[in-house]
């Protein structure tokens, strides 16, 4: 591994695993990587994982799992600059794999609540306009 500080942003570092492949991390992440007891054990093999990894306890721990503490399979990661190798905290938004489903359900519930409120307002106006004491729902 070779480390190079980003000239445009001194709080970011390029970590080269091969001459052509690198990831971009921020200062906190860089310190976590170099101070890890597996620092010299990082490997990069595109056939095994798209991110660098080390082998521990019969498992491959990739860079995402190491830096953020969870497996990619449980999460959906959005990269603001569409560069999946820019792992800086400013570039990543992390969602649970069911985030989109939960978000859609919340939106639907809010729509239904709004419809019910509108219907209640219309019923009150009908009561007032026609002098009704009670409206029977069918």
Structure in a nutshell:
The protein has 138 residues and is an alpha+beta fold. 33% of the residues lie in helices and 23% in strands. The strands form three sheets. Strands 1-2-3 form a three-stranded antiparallel beta sheet.
General description of the model:
With 138 residues, this protein is an alpha+beta fold. It folds into 2 domains: 95 residues, no CATH class; 41 residues, no CATH class. 33% of the residues lie in helices and 23% in strands. The chain has a 3-stranded antiparallel sheet with strand order 1-2-3.
Core attributes:
three-stranded antiparallel beta sheet, two-stranded antiparallel sheet, 138 residues
Strand order of the biggest β-sheet = 1-2-3
Q: What share of residues is helical?
A: 25-40%
Radius of gyration: 26 Å
User: What's the count of strands?
Assistant: 7
Shape: elongated
Mean pLDDT: 81
Structural class: alpha+beta
| Measured distance between first and last alpha carbons | 73 Å
The helix tally amounts to 3
| Quaternary assembly | single chain
The largest β sheet comes out as: 3 strands, antiparallel
Outline the low-pLDDT stretches: none
Order of helices and strands: EEEHEEHEEH
Total domains, how many?
Answer: 2
Strand content: 15-25%
Summarize the SSE layout with pairings:
Elements: E1 2-5, E2 12-16, E3 22-26, H1 27-34, E4 53-56, E5 59-62, H2 63-68, E6 75-79, E7 92-96, H3 99-130
Antiparallel strand pairs: 1-2, 2-3, 4-5, 6-7
